[in-house]
UniProtKB/TrEMBL annotation:
It is found in: Cell outer membrane. This is TonB-dependent receptor. Keywords: Cell outer membrane, Membrane, Receptor, Transmembrane, Transmembrane beta strand, Transport. It is a multi-pass membrane protein.
Length: 1046
């Protein structure tokens, strides 16, 4: 591996790579002969747009010729010498292609018309862009205008519900934090907290979350550095035929983001900004003051009667004492109505030889928890130069800085467990401490990213094109944390950690595109690439710092300090190819192939091969298909392919070494003759020389149909994706000397159906328009293979466990089935052999307890009676968007939904725990009183209750989260956002020397409808499916903004 990495670090590629490219280039021959120079006329003209502005850069081509043409200059003018009976073709991106017969004229002017559907009819498939109707892959596209100005810090949150099969869950309301993004199901087997994430490619730059995850010191979402308002289009590559060209990085799908480029016309300056608020979130319902006192007194009397009142804490009974008669609402002291602001400015121009776009964005979102928030500064530059007709040079550079404040201290304000009773009196200093405003406490998180891509395109002939692309990325993260001594038992403690990723990638590929007799259309692409990443991390800590004013690791004696650093390197070498062919634009075929060599493997398994094939048939182009005014287009398509994945760890294929060789895992560094020693790390997983590539084999069948002149568009897909030979750590017997082994041991299948429907409901000649876009996806996740003879694997602590079982989804939650609540002691089953009532871990069960199902019939409930209770990942999910427009007014409503999802409702079990009485324990520091209104819990013998008794009288843990009664339905339907805008008429705007003026408003996270009766928001739960109400809630946001173009 060392030699492999060093060769790539030098930037040197094998000589034979360049030799193969040269041979391929020469094999395509020379361009066709030039057009005959007889009977020519000089034709001039000007091309303008719909506003009568000149359009530079329009391609003016001679029909029937492959090498005669020109482009319009900065004033939209052109000149050509062509036959007098020729026909000119005018082409420009975003406008309709137009043909004009010359008929002997010497002046041909043209006003080109916008083609609003043209961009939607082109998809990016990796190294190429093709017409959507010729695509044989499963690809979904989202126009940038559909995600503009949504008040979210990260682009993937704006994609929620907009792409069938893309599951986006905003699990936290903390600004800048990560959510869940999976495409066609989860394949991650690392833990119950992990999810498989698609590959992001931004303007040709690969954002490898595997690399970025190695320096995740801040918890900030790395995708949040992209300004959503800079995005032109997003293409989601779902199946292997689309993503196999990316090989080892595309096992979980690919999201290709293309940012905006200059448009034709005069130079433009665009200003855009919005400002708004995030409302205070709905907190856990608690009672304070007199209401808390009455609730606790009632519960004590209800369960224990008058004798129980003898041990009641005087804080509850002495209501006349002003020192006790307080009503502190702890939660209100730490939440706020927060500010949101976003400002964009960009300058762009499209010239005959050069084009540019410079953009700057500032985004700032305060958290609804005081002391939290997220700020982003992003600057980007696009440059394009066309010095010669055959040479096109492009550069994209983006810099972003993200600063994120996280929750300070150890107090989880949403759980309420960290708070005393409302009887406790707060001083001003106490209030400041709980607000997190104390300046002595520090939790600073900073991310900086610099990405650049430079590309050269050479047109050797009209059919033969060469591209060289070089990408560079440099990302840094830093976390500085300090907690003063008075908050940490006298220990002023600080940590500082930093990490960086340096990454480069170079790709060279050649394309041959040609049509023969307007019947056979051929496209061939062949290329080679290399990439290298260098990752370093540094960490240090200091205890008992001399002063709370220092806040850094200074003045710390050696025994109270610690530090470590690490360096990791990886490299990959690749070959890739694509062949696309169609006959008469109706019989379609495509094949992809990629070969990747990764330094993460040993020399025997270094190379992986990833092929795919796909085919399509456009039925409506057949002569036998009847012409009609209803059906415009029907295409059926199918594909099969293999994508891959190398290990998450850079050195998983190699034996780990350590300097800690103390017997039985001691924490010291063993020395020999005064020097540290190195030995095998028996605490890490033992690896195998046979460790190989993970493979994802995917089959896809799809249908695309258009009706009524594209007023109805339907897309459907059925897929089966088998993720095989997945790398997994499994436990080893103690006698081996190791704790775990690592190998290709697990297989997972995801299969499902996706439907996407677009409706344009009103005639186009009306002033009104009404469109509806809806999608739904169904995914079935199941494990196909496990190690050790397919034995089930249980993870987690005994009180909260997840299970892996063949035939079942990944990491289902497990627990005890419940069959109601015992109304009387006689309802408890009796063991016919012993005559004793059923027990719970040996404790006799009684009225008011949960009726747990005895799975093995031994009349004792224990861990052997646990079963699977549900899947925390949804089975159905999707979104619905509707937009109504009248002249310049637009009103849009977007909703998303999730169906059939199970989660642990710790919010409910904690509420029950909050009511448990311990004699004399309910005083000033016993915890808040939770509102039990609406909960039908057991109080009296014979009662048919939904929940167990609040009083723990027999030591059975009735509030244990593993009971089925604490699992809940995670389905929801959310009104995600409502938008309204008004665009001022062009004639009016032009009078004040503007090109465009638009005002708009957004309401985000408007309302959620849920089947859960006790949990406020079932989207706001942890990745593993557990939620106890301590999660950062999703706020309601309201913004107003304006967009001005000069």
């Amino acid at each position: 591996m060392e030699k492999f990495v060093k060769n790539l670090k030098r930037g040197g590629l094998p000589t034979r790579c360049w030799l193969y490219m040269l041979i391929l280039l020469l094999s395509f021959g020379l361009p066709e002969s030039i057009f005959a120079q007889t009977d020519l006329v000089k034709v001039t003209g000007t091309v303008t747009d719909e506003t009568n502005q000149p359009v530079p850069g329009v391609n003016v081509l001679l029909k029937g010729s492959s090498n005669i043409g020109t482009v319009t200059d900065i004033e939209g003018k052109y000149t050509l010498n062509i036959p007098k009976d020729a026909t000119l073709i005018f082409k420009f991106v975003g406008y309709k292609t137009t043909e004009v017969a010359v008929n002997g004229k010497t002046t041909v002017n043209l006003s080109i018309q916008p083609d609003v559907k043209q961009l939607e009819d082109v998809v990016v498939i990796g190294y190429q862009a093709i017409k959507r109707e010729k695509s044989t892959a499963a690809i979904a596209s989202v126009a940038g205008e559909k995600i503009e100005n949504i008040p979210v810090p990260s682009v993937e949150m704006a994609l929620q519900g907009k792409v069938a099969g893309l599951n986006v869950l905003n699990i936290t309301g903390e600004p800048g934090a990560k959510g869940i993004v999976t495409l066609r199901g989860n394949t991650s087997i690392a833990s119950q907290d992990s999810r498989s994430t698609p590959l992001y490619v931004v303007d040709g730059i690969v954002m490898d979350e595997g690399d970025l995850g190695q320096i995740d010191l801040t918890g900030t979402n790395p995708i949040a550095g992209i300004n959503p308002n800079d995005i032109e289009s997003i293409d989601v590559l779902k199946d292997a035929s689309a993503s196999a060209i990316y090989g080892a990085r595309a096992a979980n799908g690919v999201i290709i983001i293309k940012t905006k480029t200059p448009k034709a016309g005069k130079p433009q300056v665009r200003l855009n900004g919005y400002y708004g608020v995030a409302m205070k979130p709905t907190m856990r319902s608690t009672l304070v003051g007199t209401a808390e006192r009455h609730l606790k007194m009632d519960l004590i009397y209800q369960y224990l009667g008058k004798p129980g009142m003898e041990n009641v804490n005087y804080w509850i009974t002495d209501s006349l004492n002003p020192a006790f008669n307080n009503n502190t609402d702890w939660q209100s002291n730490v939440i706020q109505k927060a500010r949101i602001q976003n400002y964009d400015v960009n300058v762009s121009a499209y010239g005959e030889k050069t084009s540019y776009r410079l953009s700057y964005n500032f985004y700032d979102e305060e958290g609804t928890v005081i002391g939290t928030g997220f700020t982003r500064n992003t600057a980007s530059l696009y440059l394009n130069a066309r010095p010669y007709s055959f040479l096109n040079l492009t550069g994209n550079i983006r810099f972003s800085e993200m600063s994120r404040k996280k929750t300070n201290g150890s107090i989880n304000i949403f759980s309420t467990w960290s708070f005393p009773s409302s009887f406790f009196k707060l001083t001003d200093e106490d209030i400041e401490n709980f607000k997190g405003n104390n300046l002595d406490e520090l939790d600073k998180n900073l991310n900086r990213d610099l990405y650049a891509n430079f590309q050269a395109n050479i047109d050797f002939t009209p059919y033969l094109k060469w591209t060289t692309s070089y990408s560079f990325g440099y990302s840094t993260t830093r976390n500085d944390y300090f907690i003063p001594s008075y908050r940490n038992d006298g220990n002023a403690y600080a940590t500082s950690s930093s990490g960086s990723v340096k990454r480069w990638e170079i790709e060279n590929y050649i394309q041959y595109l040609r049509s023969f007799k307007e019947t056979h259309n051929l496209s061939v692409l062949f290329g080679q690439g290399a990439e290298y990443s260098y990752i370093d991390n540094l960490w240090g800590e200091g205890n008992y710092i001399a002063s709370n004013s220092i806040q850094t690791i200074q003045g710390v004696v050696s025994k109270n300090s610690n530090a470590s650093s690490s360096i990791e390197e990886r490299a990959r070498l690749s070959w890739f190819a694509r062949l696309s062919y169609d006959y008469k634009d109706k019989y379609l075929f495509s094949a992809n192939w990629r070969m990747d060599g990764s330094s993460r493997f040993g020399k025997d398994n270094r190379w992986g091969h990833f092929p795919s094939v796909s085919a399509g048939w456009i039925i409506t182009k057949e002569s036998f298909f009847p012409e009609n005014q209803v059906t415009d287009f029907i295409k059926i398509r199918g594909s099969y392919g293999i994508t891959g994945n190398d290990p998450a760890g850079f050195y998983d294929a190699y034996r780990a070494l350590t300097t800690n060789v103390d017997y039985r895992g001691g924490s010291g560094i063993t020395s020999y003759n005064g020097s540290g020693t190195i030995a095998y790390d028996f605490g890490s997983a033992v690896t195998s020389r046979e460790l190989g590539w993970e493979e994802s084999k995917q089959m896809n069948f799809g249908l695309d149909a258009h009706f009524l002149n594209k007023r109805i568009i339907l897309t459907g897909d059925y897929y089966i994706r088998d993720s095989e030979s997945m790398i997994f750590n499994y436990a080893l017997p103690v006698t081996t000397g190791y704790t775990e082994a690592k190998n290709n041991l697990v297989s997972v299948r995801n299969s499902g159906v996706e439907l996407q429907l677009s409706l344009d409901l009103l005639p186009h000649n009306w002033d009104w328009s009404w469109t509806i876009d809806a999608n739904i996806a169904m995914n079935k996740n199941q494990i196909k293979k496990l190690p050790n003879g397919n034995r089930s694997i249980v993870t987690g602590a005994p009180w909260m466990e997840w299970i892996l079982t063949v035939g079942r989804p990944l990491y289902e939650i497990t627990g005890w089935r419940s069959n109601g609540i015992y109304a009387t002691d006689d309802d408890v089953p009796v063991d016919p052999l012993t005559g004793n009532r059923m027990t719970f871990f040996g404790t006799t069960m009684q009225a008011g307890d949960i009726a747990v199902v005895d799975q093995n019939g031994d009349y004792n409930i224990d861990y052997n009676d646990k079963v699977s209770l549900g899947n925390p990942d949804p089975k159905y999910y999707g979104g619905i968007n509707t937009t109504v427009r009248w002249k310049g007014i637009s009103l849009g409503v977007f909703c998303n939904y999730v169906i059939k999802r199970t989660f642990w409702n710790g919010f409910l079990s904690d509420r029950m725990n909050g009511g448990v009485y311990s004699a004399g324990g309910w005083g000033n520091v016993s915890g808040p009183a939770l509102d039990f209104g609406g909960l039908k819990y057991y109080t009296t013998p014979g009662q048919q209750a939904d929940l167990p008794t609040l009083i723990a009288t027999n030591h059975m843990d009735n509030r244990h989260i593993a009971h089925e009664i604490y699992t809940d339905n995670g389905s929801f339907f959310r009104v995600k956002n409502i938008s309204m805008s008004y665009e001022f008429p062009t004639a009016l705007v032009n009078k004040i020397k503007l090109q465009r003026l638009r005002v708009y408003g957004y309401m985000d996270n408007v309302w959620v409808f849920s089947k859960s009766k006790t949990y406020p928001d079932p989207e706001n739960i942890n990745t593993n499916g557990y939620a106890n109400g301590s999660e950062y809630p999703l706020p309601h946001k309201f913004t107003l903004g304006a967009e001005i173009t000069f």
